[in-house]
Amino acid sequence: MAAAALLSNGGVKTPATGRYAAVYSEVQNSRLDHPLPLPSVLKSPFKVVDGPPSSAAGNPDEIAKLFPSLFGQPSATLVPGDSSSVQELKIGVVLSGGQAPGGHNVISGIYDYLQSHCKGSTLYGFRGGPAGIMKCKYVVLTSDYIYPYRNQGGFDMICSGRDKIETPEQFKQAEETAIKLDLDGLVVIGGDDSNTNACLLAENFRSKNLKTRVIGCPKTIDGDLKCKEVPTSFGFDTACKIYSEMIGNVMIDARSTGKYYHFVRLMGRAASHITLECALQTHPNITLIGEEVAAKKETLKNVTDYIADVICKRAELGYNYGVILIPEGLVDFIPEMKLVLGKGNLPPSLFILFDLLPLAIQDQLLLERDPHGNVQVAKIETEKMLIQMVETELEVRKEGGSYKGQFKGQSHFFGYEGRCGLPSNFDSTYCYALGYAAGALLQSGKTGLISSVGNLAAPVAEWTVGGTALTSLMDVERRHGKFKPVIKKAMVELEGAPFKKFVSMREEWALKNRYLNPGPIQFVGPESNAVNHTLLLELGAQV
Amino acid sequence: MAAAALLSNGGVKTPATGRYAAVYSEVQNSRLDHPLPLPSVLKSPFKVVDGPPSSAAGNPDEIAKLFPSLFGQPSATLVPGDSSSVQELKIGVVLSGGQAPGGHNVISGIYDYLQSHCKGSTLYGFRGGPAGIMKCKYVVLTSDYIYPYRNQGGFDMICSGRDKIETPEQFKQAEETAIKLDLDGLVVIGGDDSNTNACLLAENFRSKNLKTRVIGCPKTIDGDLKCKEVPTSFGFDTACKIYSEMIGNVMIDARSTGKYYHFVRLMGRAASHITLECALQTHPNITLIGEEVAAKKETLKNVTDYIADVICKRAELGYNYGVILIPEGLVDFIPEMKLVLGKGNLPPSLFILFDLLPLAIQDQLLLERDPHGNVQVAKIETEKMLIQMVETELEVRKEGGSYKGQFKGQSHFFGYEGRCGLPSNFDSTYCYALGYAAGALLQSGKTGLISSVGNLAAPVAEWTVGGTALTSLMDVERRHGKFKPVIKKAMVELEGAPFKKFVSMREEWALKNRYLNPGPIQFVGPESNAVNHTLLLELGAQV
């Protein structure tokens, strides 16, 4: 490897040591050499076997109309067998949407697959997300270019973006790029929207008789892009471990100080997977799960009362402290708040609710709207709102004599610090396999599939590898009178093993203090190869 | 060790494994067995050698009057020699003030010293801080009781408190406890105020002819309790590593997304040591150091302009993102803000400044006052204030044509999550030595000293051990017409090596992106035994 300036941020590798001293910390450097084992099936000759025809997650007739070329295509599984013929490929890769730890390893996996199976291939990295495809803004990814990003967090190798390829003009631009670069394939690394977009692109290329095939990869720390064949999205494992370290520290602080209730809001947008996983890792006194709040049609008053009830019971036991986890999207799960958050004017029936809200939150509701008139949920400081509402409720109870404790709230928001951490060993390995699989699927001529790596509770050698028809994950939503295909977000299942495990424990956690402090992500030593609880429980393992 | 319920939170040790599965994570468990090496001088027979008579940090005449029994006493150094005679001791220990990682190890060190040098001794842990001394609320610390807290964060073994022993009645209560428990000694683990209090207690016991001796230990994550003999306070190393991990992650996020300026406020109260250390570990684009702002007599407008200047220059280079570190105490360093923050009514000259402040901050300034009428600086969201002020300034520049970039601010406060983390290897070992030294000083009949472990840039074996006269760290302040002894807070020295190193780098960091992501605290592997930059630089090492 040359001693050239390799990194986008100006780092120069020291040939003698193989280290990037100027721009990388010791831990970053040490991660470069962390080994990335492959599932056995990817290490020997393999062939791709098709399963039965697929359908859709809902409204198959509409999905069939929207994807005439792709609908019904089978999922693919890699099994030992004759390797397909070696051919040079031209492949593009794009990162779409918010960061998730491990994205760089997907790219490393694609690259290494091409190197070992299709010598002479070219990998183009589109810069800045889907806009890079439309503008044909790319970099040719070489071994030297990719190596410094191995097992590193962030998306800074080629950066990401939130543009979508939607209009006929935009599809046309994408076609022009595919033709100009003579692309055999494109890997779209993204969340539910980006993978829907990837499938539309696959359909479009196929319908135009372009050779460019499209494979998606499941990315989001939120953990809400998953199904039977795609057991988890990458980044979730790392983000939860980083948040849980911080929560564990705050718990020790709470117990040591004995006088604060820490209200911790956690990133995770629509679904509450991150909050649930962090609860399973740390055992907080109170955990709000948005999906449960919605299912029980709870009001803001119900939620406030639930928190206040636990605080009162704890006060009787002599505990005037605790830790409360709150999912970022909570307010979106409360039916009455949904109305407050919606477009247009407030229905008169909700004036009273609105008046109950702390002033600062009223401001946020009135001011923090996006260009479409929607409230930007991520900007609402739900943790501060709840502190004030609980405080008010406890004052009432104090006057009534039913509460004799002391209440002091401390608010936290853990978000950005988890999105770009150094990927855990699990995410590092999982992403590398996802990328490798994407390469194999493209070489086998597949399109419109999402890279699928399964059997994740087993040792890496036994992981299964294949691709799932993106159309099989889809349903339609009616928008502006038209059906739009969507991959349904996987919400927390109230009948699922992770939630049930949590329910079986939460009363004990509420009143007894069963705090667990997982400590920093461990790359070496105990637990360094442990997988998150959600995934293990969903896979039927005992945790 | 018995299989009894050992932990305050109800954990039971599994005899077969020696683990605390129900209440401890794997990492917490693994830390229990992390070895704690001792400086060589503590491993062989040693004697205590006195240095020359000491003076005071300022106003020695007044300090001499305040401490007639203790003033002028020499510092003590442990050197190889005949061990002092074995005697049973009764020692008390108390944790005072806010948490800092490593407090439990100080207690472990005292205990292990007594076990190995004064068999049959008793160690009392006063519960809930100095109030535990006054109320004689204690627990007898046994091997079984202490072991589960070895190398663990927090102060939950005996908890802490912020009470002071100040009035004649309170001193009387402390005397009663000392007599009742027949205490030979007391170790006060605390910050500057608590160590001042420890010295007053030592003086009081001595003047009353009680045998109870008092030794202090330097504790505070803020890093502002230090001097030549006490090179650092414990907890600073761990807290900075935890904050730097988070900052490093946010940096990768900033670079990947390319559209946010992250304003990160860091705990650390009066002094900016934590912010400076985190800057040295991570290389942010902008770092505000309170002591520099004060020395240059900068206004809030100056600070805003400085940030806006860097943002404008970066925009010209195509960077519309960055990371800015802000010390918690910043507003206290800005002369005009000091007036706004002070008691009483706002001078008319400052109405204009006040009007410039964002509304939410005006509210905080008006409402968040403590019972003494002072603004609670920790509650002012300086990071949000600066975002709004910078935004306004950049809008003006945009209209004037001197700024063409895009500005979006994201605010963060990193505080509680760092105070109670699992102590770094350095803090674990340093604290154990501090406790061990405190035991040795008490056995040697010393009082009014602060446990001092030095030569910290060298291997642990070569660390020096002794005690420094607390009166030598003191000056007086006039309060309510009376002289009060105080240990002066050690502020960031603008002529010191850490600040100079920072100054030599900050222009490069501002415009080029030299972000370093230190990654999670590493207990094993690369950098796991590295010491923080501030300490190494202050000790003259090259970093």
What's the quick description here?
Two copies of one chain form a homodimer. Chain A has two domains: 26-235 and 423-480, Rossmann fold (3-Layer(aba) Sandwich), CATH 3.40.50.450; 237-417 and 513-539, 3-Layer(aba) Sandwich (Rossmann fold), CATH 3.40.50. By secondary structure, chain A is α/β, with parallel strands linked by helices.
What does this structure look like?
Two copies of one chain form a homodimer. Chain A is an alpha/beta fold and 543 residues long. Chain A has two domains: 26-235 and 423-480, Rossmann fold; 237-417 and 513-539, Rossmann fold. Helices cover 40% and strands 15% of the residues of chain A. Chain A is built from 21 helices and 16 strands. Chain A has helices at residues 26-32, 40-43, 60-66, 103-117, 130-134, 143-146, 168-180, 192-207, 236-257, 273-282, 290-295, 300-316, 330-333, 335-341, 351-356, 359-367, 382-400, 416-419, 425-443, 497-511, 533-538; strands at 46-50, 76-80, 90-96, 122-126, 138-140, 160-161, 185-190, 213-218, 261-266, 286-287, 322-327, 409-414, 449-454, 464-469, 474-479, 482-487. In chain A, the strands form three sheets. In chain A, strands 1, 2, 3, 4, 5, 6, 7, 8, 13 and 14 form a ten-stranded mixed beta sheet that branches. The first copy, chain A, has a four-stranded parallel beta sheet with strand order 10-11-9-12, sandwiched between helices. In chain A, strand 3 (90-96), helix 4 and strand 4 (122-126) form a beta-alpha-beta unit. In chain A, helix 10 crosses helix 20 (497-511) and helix 12 packs across helix 17 (382-400). Residues 1-6 of chain A have low confidence and may be disordered.
